[in-house]
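Record 1 of the preview.
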Amino acid sequence: MPDPTTEIILHNYPQSPVAEKVRVAFGIKQLTWRDVEIPRLPPKPMLTTLTGGYRRTPVMQIGADIYCDSQCILRELERRHPTPTFMPTSEAGLMWCLSRYTDGDLFSLAVKIVLGSAGDNLPSEFAEDRGRLYIGKDWAEGLKRANEQLPHLVAQMRAPLSWMNSQLSDGRSFLLGSDPAVIDAQMYHLIWFIRGRWTGGPEMLSEFPDLIRWEENVRTLGHGASQVMRAQDAIDRAKNTEPASEIGVAPHDPQDLQVNTLVSVSPDVEGGEQPVEGKVRYADAETIAIVRTSDEVGTVCVHFPRTGYRIAIA
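->
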């Protein structure tokens, strides 16, 4: 029987590009995990019960520790399962810095291409939800501009794709050499998204043969081994275990956080999302972890990245 305090549970849905990034990461490390499928659109009551309000995809759960955002998830996977490593070269810091581009501006560009190309064919509910999430409160105007400026947006995407193609032109299997790295998962989810969700994606990608060869290499890594799990069973898992993560605050915290400081955490964008409230359990330059208690899940520790998230002291 798997150990309930260490078994990986991923709350996700099949069409999510960010979840695909994490699923590829599972493939790099050949991990076994439990698959809880969540709705594509809010409300997501079983997920937000665990997280305290966070609704983005994916969320990783290990016992009563809940990891939000792929930044946080990937770092925790490397910490718990260091072999094979996500960092086969010595440029770990540069890879994390580059991930702010792949997860930020480049992902935003891919979203605008996919949503903008759909035009009026995009279901109104989905358009409003994703538009608000990724474009902001003026999402309707933003989607209209994306549709009108689609050739410009595609031109902006071709340059990074050409850079990747050049990086791979020496015949290497993965972006850093013969071994897959976390940057492969971080770049691959964008290619997967563009190819699968934009009708013009396959044609545009066809001009980059080394990129296509790499894409197939990453796809061949698979997603590890998964088994379906019910959402209620995941909630019960949290309720029947205790948070096991580290306690403490690293020196020089710019917000003067302390263990048990009451805070709220939310993405640093105007996406209309509910902040998550709790007491600080751990904080350093990369991570903030807060403890919260409810009748439904008992005591859980919810982990977020510091980068890209706003912490407000209550």
